Please model this.
Amino acid sequence: MLRNSVTIGQYLPGNSLVHRLDPRTKILGVLGYVVILFLIRDFAGYGMMAVITVLTAAVARLPLKMLVRGLRPVLFIIVLTVTLNAVMTPGELLWSVGPFGVTREGLFQAAIMACRLLLLIITTSMLTLTTAPIDLTDGLEYLMGPFRRIGVPAHELAMMMTIALRFIPTLLDEAERIMKAQMARGADFQSGGFIQRAKNMVPLLVPLFVSAFRRADDLALAMEARCYRGGEGRSRFKILKLGPSDLAAGLVMITGFFAALVV
Model:
């Protein structure tokens, strides 16, 4: 199942402490996590960040197997990034294959990039798994609100980002249905090398794009039928308020991030 292999964009309802946190707390926490990931330069720091990720998943009651399974669709990108760092980083040559050489510094950089990408994907997946789409939209809009003074359309940007995330599993479902229909008619998506498989995917893209445009049109009509006119003057049923749990979570995250940098 394509959809079962992708966790980004999916929401898993629950009543855990992480689910009940204000979406702004979770968004800022993920942004801080990403910044710290790019500041760390050793494996001890990444080990600390991995502990934070595992503990957060345990508190959110998210199956670790599901988070790891979500890495499958981007495994090719991870392998490609690691390979390029291993062979393109100059340094002490360990072995060579033709014109390509693997260096000691390249292996170290490749391992760093692998840790960084794995933790980045898992953590961003946890954000969407524990935050309802409407809450995610409201949180993004609140955080981008101050930029309205310089002409940034905060509501529209938040809406587009949330819809894009929400449509990822929907489009994967559609792609799977189209693929199964074409395989039933004799299409072959498995045999051949990488180039041949890429060519075999071309007949899948056309109906997928048509379906995506049709869904976008249906969504626009549904929003117009409900008198959606943007964020100006829009009222909210649920007003976001930071509580004691958000303050405690923020302090815990800051302490964990600081510890990772110190380590």
In short: The beta strands are 93-97, 100-103. The radius of gyration is 22 Å.
